[in-house]
Amino acid sequence: MGKGMQAWAALCACVSVPAAPAIADSGENPPVRQELSAAQLFVYADTARDAGNFGVAEAAYRALSSNPDPELRTEARFRLGLMLADRQQKYREAAVEFRRILDEKPGAARVRLELARMDAMLGNLGAARREMRAAQAAGLPPEVERMVRFYAAALQARKPVGGSIEIALAPDSNINRATRSDTLGTVLGTFALDQNARARSGLGLALRGQGYLRTGLDRRSSLLVRLDTSASLYRDPQFGDVIVSVQAGPEYRSGTDRITLSAGPTWRWYGAQPYSRAIGGDAALQHPMGAKAQGRIAAGIVHAANLRNSLQTADTFSLGAGYDRALSARFGGGLGLNASRTAARDPGYSDVTLGASAYVFREIGRTTLVVALGYNRLEADARLQLYPRRRTDDRFTATAGATWRALQWHGFAPITRLRWERGRSTVDIYGYRRVAAELGIASAF
């Protein structure tokens, strides 16, 4: 065990969970056929675990986890989670057990800290930090509060390789985010729009994936290489949208702050044909703001070459800031602001965009609900010659989603999302309405 995890173990040992009744271990396993009490079954499971008989131990712990006594269930799942994590390095399976405990006992601080450790080992640092904030929001003893802050660096002892995957069916009322109007007004007159230039509905397949490789450079820094992919696929291939991005760069730790630098290429295909190539980079800072909150700021620059219309080839400069806060062990939210400047070859495609967003999450039983709202304002530098007015857009979005952990299987959990979008524009072709849903599964590995 590395020093970071030893420190984490010391931290977690300071927060107790309800202990199950125990009896003295005679040194011999009770006969399997014997009718065992819960206390004897705990001894039997622990003995099997210590002897390396993990299958036997898991079967016993799972039998105890169905006990009607909530304290016994909690203890069994907790011991099973620790065995899966520390003896078998099955971090995802361990996270499932810790999450099941928190579904029943959201105030179990020790369990939430262990879940944060599992998220960190899986590379889900954002989730790990959320669990840390939730643990602190639930209330920790003063000495543990100090240790949480001191040992937050233990989150950096994380899995070197991992990722996540999401697959969903995606019914969509407007797969091409196009106008519903059948005509378009221009300086040359009013023209009829081709059917493919108007809003089209469809049932698609949404795919998202992330993979990463992390290697340590020194005590305070590491190199992170990340692959991100997303695809929206439809029966009619002309509306398929695929994006692949590769980013690499160092992560630095300065006290409790984390600084990330990354750069790399992005490719996009639309309609089964190359659409754009981009190269860019960004810098991000994450800073704790008290025990229950976190702030972040990021800046980036991207050069994107549009392969369909060279006049849209542009440099985009972006700046964003956000604030996240845990209000309780099962409730929290955040705010975000963003700004970008796109400088294209044609001033009509150059613009300034400002936006704001907000979200809240709530855990209800074994379901996590998330609701988010967003607004963006775009103003173009100049009027495109074809259109009578300079482009100005207002875009509104609302999203509601749920993760149904009660139905999870081998680390995969069902997800559902509903998204509403409304775009208003001074140029008719950019105005649209859209309602889309996703029904699928997601998992980290």
Write the topology of this structure:
Elements: H1 3-13, H2 38-50, H3 54-64, H4 70-87, H5 91-104, H6 109-121, H7 125-138, H8 142-150, E1 161-172, E2 183-186, E3 189-192, E4 202-218, E5 221-233, E6 241-254, E7 257-270, E8 273-288, E9 293-306, E10 314-328, E11 331-344, E12 351-364, E13 367-380, E14 392-404, E15 413-425, E16 432-444
Antiparallel strand pairs: 1-4, 1-16, 2-3, 4-5, 5-6, 6-7, 7-8, 8-9, 9-10, 10-11, 11-12, 12-13, 13-14, 14-15, 15-16
Helix pairs in contact: 2-3, 3-4, 4-5, 5-6, 6-7
What does this structure look like?
With 445 residues, the chain is α+β, with helices and mostly antiparallel strands. The protein folds into two domains: 3-156, Tetratricopeptide repeat domain (Serine Threonine Protein Phosphatase 5, Tetratricopeptide repeat, Alpha Horseshoe), CATH 1.25.40.10; 161-444, monomeric porin ompg (Porin, Beta Barrel). Helices cover 23% and strands 46% of the residues. It contains eight helices and 16 strands. It has helices at 3-13, 38-50, 54-64, 70-87, 91-104, 109-121, 125-138, 142-150, and strands spanning 161-172, 183-186, 189-192, 202-218, 221-233, 241-254, 257-270, 273-288, 293-306, 314-328, 331-344, 351-364, 367-380, 392-404, 413-425, 432-444. The protein has a 14-stranded antiparallel beta barrel. The longest helix is centred in the first third of the chain and has 18 residues, at 70-87. The radius of gyration is 26 Å and the shape is elongated.
